[in-house]
Amino acid sequence: MSSTSQKHRDFVGEPMGDKPVTALAGIGGTLGGRLEEEGFDKAYVVLGQFLVLKKNEEFFKDWLKSTCNANSKQSGDCYTCLKEWCDNFL
Asked: Per the annotation, which location comes first and is thus the protein's main one (predicted)?
């Protein structure tokens, strides 16, 4: 498996706080804008959806693809980021 990005390490290494959705690994400006249009303007709102989907990788990736047109790598990076954050803080 590939190593994680600096963005991923920064995110999972500290509390969520009020981080923008673009702080999530795999979510850049374009996907972040699409998520914001759908009401997912903060990382904690996306985390909420992740938890509603019971941390299920397949469901979350499918949701991310349908919500903001994320590709497999982007949705996988975001899933891994949120899962590791949950492992550290929940």
From this structure: nucleus
